[in-house]
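Researcher: Structure for this, please.
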Amino acid sequence: MIWHKKIMRRISLALLARSRADALLRLGEKRVLLAFHRAAAKVPAYRTTLSSHGVNPDDIRSITDFQALCPTLNKTNTFAHYPLNELCHPSGLDNLAGVLTSSGHGARFGYGLTTRIQAKYACDAIDLGLEYAFQVDSKKTLLINCLPMGVRFSSNSVTVAETSVREDMAVAIATEFGRFYEQIILVGDPLFLKLVTDYAREKTINWQNYKVHLVIGEETFGENFRNYLADHFHLDNDNPATGIIASSMGVAELGLNLFYETEETIRLRRLARANPEFFAALFGIAPAATPQPMLFVYNPLRSYVEILDADEAGYGSLTISMSYPDAALPLLRYQTGDIARVFLPDEIARIRERCGLPSPGKLTLPIIALKGREKDQLPDGTHVGQYKDALYAHHEIARMLTGAFRLEYTDGRMLIHVQLRRGYEADDNMSLRLATEFPGIVMPEQVRFWTYLQFPFGMTLDYERKFTYYAPA
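Model: Predicted structure, token format:
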């Protein structure tokens, strides 16, 4: 049975690799139309929503009709507006295998529901992604899940250790069990993985004794942070054979690993970072004007993606429709609050060739350039992501910090409050060195370091919750 599943994974990967992105997108359009008509016929809340917008489901015959007529959904007009039973298929709540909540960061929870039928295939979907990225079918693999908030997953191909946000537990399992495996995959969010590096350094862990990969979720991050992690784990970001540091984006209401980095997209992003001309041509923005967007691929047979209200550079509101035929709680044209743009591989190839740069490898799936959360755009035109990555420009400074900071925009200028790790104090030169890395013109006096216990924006970090880097006055 296991060998049969391995063969099916290889067939699925081969089909995705050989199919053209535009052909996959057309198939995805057909699947999402089927999902729409099922939801319109069976889900009370969705029928009411369509009726209130004057939409007759019989008028939705093409993807153009779907885009032009169907309303967009979000956490507020869905989960805050309807009782849960009305959001679901009539039998949706009868046979649930699992419930996943959103972070609650927006003062309201959304929910992702998994039926028992879906759960039977969940392992296969996870294993397909792991095989694609890490060849787990041929390499004995230990996966350590450090994600918070009860985010769990299972696998038929790897050993899974669930530690949640316990850095001591994660490091102990990696060092005690890692020597019995060919590779270790650590899964966590950026702030917690920073804590893991701090703890492991104090314990003088030599990661060169292990083959380590990292999968980072929950937040976007920059190449300074990727370089910082690579330095700690003795990896070379430009040589995947040493280990891969990759991002994965999920949305609790929609699913895990919706968008993910590959060796090729990581190489492409780093190529853009090293070449300002290519950066501007690819992303349509100047390198200093924004944090570098993440570059993700996605499977259009699973998720139908739209970008609404796009600006001149093509960035707009990320809008996702899941095409599961048997979803307990179907969500169509659901807006996540992220700003993004979609590319086809051929479009990226043309831009790269015009800039005279080498290929990052074969790109077959559609690609999303993700800027980040819409609410992370700051009043002065800068972005939270720029400050976040600036903390890791100097590794010797980064090792003294927790990674937590708070931005205050007051009297037309930004104040940056930075938390130090326990037992550390800032020297006179640190404010100056960090000020030069922050976007715009930042003077040293705008950067204030706080000792760990005196940091006024959450005395200690709670890694179960997303940290708030900026809160409007």
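Researcher: Any notable elements?
Model: The chain has two domains: 1-270, 377-473. The two ends are 58 Å apart (CA to CA).
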